[in-house]
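re: ur msg from earlier - yeah i can do the coenzyme A complex, just paste it... oh wait u already did. ok heres what im feeding in:
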Amino acid sequence: MTPSIKPWFPIRTERLVLRDFRETDFEDVQAYGSDPEVTRYMVWGPNAPDDTRAFLARALAQQTARPRLEFGFAIEHAETGHVIGSAALHLREGPNRPVELGYCLHREWWRQGLVTEAASALIDAGFRTLGLHRIAATCDVRNVGSFGVMEKLGMRREGHLREDRQVKGEWCDSYIYAVLADEWSRR
Ligand SMILES: CC(C)(COP(=O)(O)OP(=O)(O)OC[C@H]1O[C@@H](n2cnc3c(N)ncnc32)[C@H](O)[C@@H]1OP(=O)(O)O)[C@@H](O)C(=O)NCCC(=O)NCCS
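and the outut:
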């Protein structure tokens, strides 16, 4: 991983703050993580309170890991201070480290361009500050909203993965999308 000297987060966008999760985010996280509509295409959820507690414990542990490879940020709505979702960059070690983007939003806030806004800021930081070369994302082929975000971000669909993951006990197909640093800078 390219070392970053100055802190590159929290990230502020027009309507959001992307920051590390805190234990006190429990109620906000439980609100979206327990919604079966939100978790419909996710390998996790809907979450019971204990799942949310475990998620937050993992998130807090990842914040202190060195090197830190997991940047799972809370999406805080700047105006209200509530956490309304999450946006993450998952890094791995090694010269050809694959980097994956993920996101999730409370249903009340869908279709307002918020995840596009959050993910765009995260990708920008990934390329400009962390010096990443390529950022990929996958989603269930039925998750129109998720690949809608990827396409709006200018990510390119690279493939259709057949039954690559189990969602709610069923093997499901995924699309893989990606964007390269030079494509991002030419936007
Ligand atoms: C998928 C999800 C992240 C989209 O977040 P969002 O903030 O509503 O997305 P945006 O408003 O930025 O949408 C960007 C584009 O995606 C498409 N899109 C988003 N949601 C859509 C939906 N429900 N149906 C059809 N297209 C959709 C649209 O083209 C949209 O652009 P437009 O509004 O200008 O037409 C959100 O619905 C969500 O959290 N879903 C549950 C969790 C999840 O599936 N996460 C992804 C796992 S891979």
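cool cool. Strands lie at 11-12, 16-20, 70-77, 83-90, 100-105, 134-140, 156-167, 170-180. ping me if u need the other ligands too
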